[in-house]
Each structure stands twice: as structure tokens, then as C-alpha cells.
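User: Thanks for the earlier help. One more: EAL domain-containing protein. Can you show the sequence and predicted structure together?

Assistant: Of course, both are below.
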Amino acid sequence: RDLEGLVRSALQKNLFSLQFQPIMSLPRGRICGFEALLRLTSEAGTPVSPELFIPVAEELGLLPETGEWVLNKACETAAGWPDGISAAVNLSPSQFATGSLPSQVQAALTASGLAPERLELEITEGILLKDTDAILQQLTELKALGVTIVMDDFGTGYSSLSYLWRFPFDKLKIDRSFMEAYSHSGETIQQILKAIVALGRALKMQVTIEGIETVFHARAVKDLAIDNLQGYLFGKPMADVEIPNAMLKDF
Ligand code: G
Ligand code: G
Ligand code: MN
Ligand code: NA
């Protein structure tokens, strides 16, 4: 297939890029970081959706290498931001398969000079389904580097709760499907979010809600004592050069 060829040649042809979406910290409502999101643009200039190319890259076994590129690029970019602003990087299951992820992360930090406290690693529960011991070992090594481990898309999937005590997460990122349902099931969603925040607090984990698209959404979560918010209301993913200077202030 065409897409396969494109994905295969993308690193070599320099067709990958990163966009960065702001993450807000509460209660002050300041930007405390950006999530790095991988983008692929064909040689003809057509953007390819990550929902299409990431699974293909994963199938082709190219994600460990691509993921290493993402780590290096994200750290290098973030090192150019003020000290108070961190970068969040998404990791895929296959990046854990080689066992070299902790040394890759260490290398990306060293090469960029980025302080480990300014790097967050987002993983979904899909990562945790297989080879539990090997994953746990690597997460423990990663934590020892001083980076933050985030459980992404929390609340979806099958058994998120059992992962909470088995793995050393610092932060829960509540899946945006909850905010999507807010307009028609607001009362129920409020109660679920309250319970998740209480759970996070009890486990000494920070809590992020994503998918905040409107002022209505922001108001809905205002009293929940959430640590971080993310969504189109605060900013869409953008290239580093497009980030307004006002967003890159050191507080
Ligand atoms: O912007 P958005 O459409 O980028 O992202 C779609 C999906 O792709 C999300 O689930 C997101 O987590 C994932 N994604 C984006 N960038 C990366 C990346 O660098 N690595 C991995 N593994 N997933 C990513
Ligand atoms: O799975 P993950 O949380 O890493 O997914 C990140 C994806 O979510 C990216 O595709 C990003 O573009 C998308 N995204 C970020 N904020 C919003 C939002 O407010 N609404 C919607 N629909 N998608 C969002
Ligand atoms: Mn994410
Ligand atoms: Na998510």
C-alpha cells in the first residue's frame, strides 16, 4: 500500500514533524507544558492523520525508531522553552519491547540538556497488557530518571483500575470521551469525574482532564480541583514556531 511506503520512507525523507498542544495548570490557569503530537506530511504536502499512520508504523515495526526520533525532537524543542514549561511525549507499546527505552530517554535528556522534571511520558493501558514484569521494570527505571509517568486515556479500556496499584503512575489523564459526553450526560459525568479525582488524590497522583473544547466544559470542571486541563479551548496542536510568545512565559 501507498501509506506503507510513505511511512517506511518518512524518517529518512524528513516527513515527520511535531506539533505541540498547551497544557494548563490550575488554579492559576497558566501554561505548564505542551503535549508533543507526531505529524506526517507526504512529499506532495498532504497531511496524513496520525490515526492512520501510527497504527501502520506500529505494524511495520517502525515505531521504536520513530518514537526515538519523537523523544529526541521533543526534548530538544522543550529545552528551548522557559524552565517552567515541560513536554509530554506519547509512547507506544513497541517502544517497550526492545528494553532500551530507559536508555533512549536518558540519551534524549542528556543530548538536549532538558531537566528530567520537564519530561512527561504518556502511556495507555494497551502498553500494560503484555509482558507486565518487563514493562514494570522499565517504568521503574524511567521513574528513577526523574521523569513523570502519565496514564493516558484513563477511564477507557478494560481494567484501568488494576493498573493503578501495579504501576508507578504520577498522573492520570482522563480520556476526552468524558467531556464529549458532558453535553448530554452532564450530571453523571460530573459524579464520575469527582470520583476519579478523589481516586487520584488518594493515590497521590495528579489529574488532567483533556478535551476541554468550550467555556461550558471549562466551567463544568472548575470546582473539581483538577491539576491540569487540556483541549482546543486553550490551544490546538501547533508547530513550535507557531507557539505565541505569550504562551512561553516562565512563571
Ligand atoms: O493529534 P492527534 O490526532 O495527534 O493524535 C492521534 C493519536 O495519536 C492520539 O492517540 C495520540 O496519543 C497518538 N500520538 C500522537 N503522537 C504520537 C507519538 O509521537 N507517538 C505515539 N505512540 N502516539 C502518538
Ligand atoms: O490519546 P491522546 O490523548 O494522546 O490524544 C491526543 C489527541 O487529542 C490529539 O489528536 C489531539 O489533537 C486531540 N485533542 C486535543 N485536544 C482536543 C479537544 O479539545 N477535542 C478533541 N476532539 N480532540 C482533542
Ligand atoms: Mn496523549
Ligand atoms: Na488521551
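User: Great, one quick takeaway?

Assistant: The mean pLDDT is 94.
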